Amino acid sequence: MDSSIVALKKEKRILLDNYLNESLPSYENIYKENEDAIYVLDLDGYFMKANPACKKILGFSEQELKNITFQMLVPVEDLHRVFQNFHDAFEGKVQNNDYKIINNGGNELFLNVTCLPICVKNEVVGYFGIAKDITSLKKKHEIYRIEQEIHRFLTENAKDLIIRTDIENNILYVSQSSDFITGYSPEELLLKDPYTIVHYYDRKKLIKNRKELIENGESRSTTFRLRKKDGTYIWVESVCRPLKDPATNKVREVISVLKDITVQKTAEDEARQREEIYRNLVENSPDAALLAAGNEILFINDTGVHLLGATTKEIILEKSLLDIIHPNFHSIATEQMNSNEDKTEFMEYKLVRLDGSEVDVEMKGISTVYQNRPVRHIIFRDITERKQTQELLLNSEKLSVAGQLAAGIAHEVRNPLTAIKGFLQLLQSEPLTHSNYFDIIGSEIDRIELILSELLVLAKPQDLKFEMKKLVVIIEHVKALIDTHAIMKNIVINTYYECEELMIKCDENQLKQVFINLLKNSIEAMPDGGTVTIEMKKHGPDKVKMLFKDTGNGIPEHLLKKIGQPFFTTKENGTGLGFMISKQIIENHQGTIHIWSDSKGTIIEVILPINLYA
After folding, report:
1. CA 575, CA 149: separation in Å to the nearest integer?
2. Which domains does the chain have, with CATH numbers?
3. pLDDT over threshold 70, residue 356
4. What span, in angstroms and rounded, lies between the C-alpha atoms of 516 and 582?
5. Strands 502-506 and 171-174
6. At 451, is the secondary structure helix, strand, or coil?
7. Which of 136, 429, 514, 558 is at 20 to 30 A from 41, Cα to Cα?
8. 315: Cβ contacts below 8 Å, ≥ 6 apart
């Protein structure tokens, strides 16, 4: 503590001591003979003076009191009130509060304390306290509070059967609803042993429940069968609450509220039977099926066990749902687990069998109730054979596309070959006068080479090399490459990034090829100059969206539908393969590409999956 503060407190304690020596002798008789505790505290709460009544109530000698503070007598949970009251008294306010204290004998007492500031030379130097023992009054209030609580409890549950019993289980009180629920009048029940109307098979449980309640002093609830006066049994739910004696803190009686739940219990039994029927239907379903609550698998049928390569159901039940779903599908599976909507159509997933092999399935989840909790009934079917059939159909489709490509190649290559052939014939007749024909022939050969090289990329793409790359860096590299060409065309390229640290798993060179192609298309669409804008933003929880916008003249709607078809182009010297190759690269990255256009310009949207952040 700061030495200046210590000195100040010492100074004020001396002032207080002088004040007491000068003032208290005038009130010596009142001070000594008062039945209430009268004491003086310094600013730290230490006892300076205490009358005989104070020493008797607290159980300390005068010398012992000088070594303790008032705060030491107060339980920890009430200390904040003590300090607040000291503070208010220091501000000159008279305080009156009830405190629970523990005296030197370990007894719990309740005191009504009035605290007054002692001022010397206009400074507060200590506190004057008068404490009245109100312990007996508090106990009376507590008994009254318990009685009031019993009354309130009875009033609030008037429709249910209310029974008060002592610790020997003698009935002390029965509510008027007894006749309606049990057929016995309250007077008849008061003469009975409560256990005689409890079903024999439930009696042992009820006795144990009551014993634990009395030992632990905690409320309990249970259900059991109760025999009515006419001999029939009803199911009741009993909530038992112990009432304690304030003096001993021991249970002195038990108040029980009994509610007839026969209808509810019957409905639960019927629901359990329906659940058993439902379980049998699922068990014998030809489709693999399981029941899951969130990520927890609660049940799986034999078909599912066989599909996952397990020998017993228990092996699968020990696993979580995500353990059997391929990691590539965890994101969509988690989304479905957290969704409240049922998917009406099947979705394709890949599952991991116990031996580590993978199996293609289609899955659908339906909300239902199992064991009184909401679950999803998940149906999954092996579609391996279907996928093989689809692969055969796809190969057949590829042959058809190959035919279309062949026709396009024949048309695109024939034109430059015809020109080359004609110019060669002219050169044979007049070799010296037509030297400019060589430039034309070279240009046409370059065109053939361009068509064939782009076609090779489309037909036989390079092996993809996926690595974690920062997407902004890739775009900036491409922008730096294109900027000079754009400036020469009086075109400005602007960029807006919302997530600059975003990383994706990709083949950097192939993505660069896509971005270069898109930017070149935008530049060529603005022969008179303009603006290209590249925007990048998050798209949902696990995707990134890039927009490439230009201010060109746009693409007519009737031509827009043909963009991406082999050899269709709106450029004078285009091949029509660039956008098709770009689309294939994006799809190889599990992404999508879309194009919109009108008279104000064109927007190309590229969406790619996100893997993580840097």
Report:
1. 90
2. 3-133 (3.30.450.20), 149-260 (3.30.450.20), 268-382 (3.30.450.20), 387-459 (1.10.287.130), 467-613 (3.30.565.10)
3. yes
4. 10
5. unpaired
6. helix
7. 136
8. 305, 354
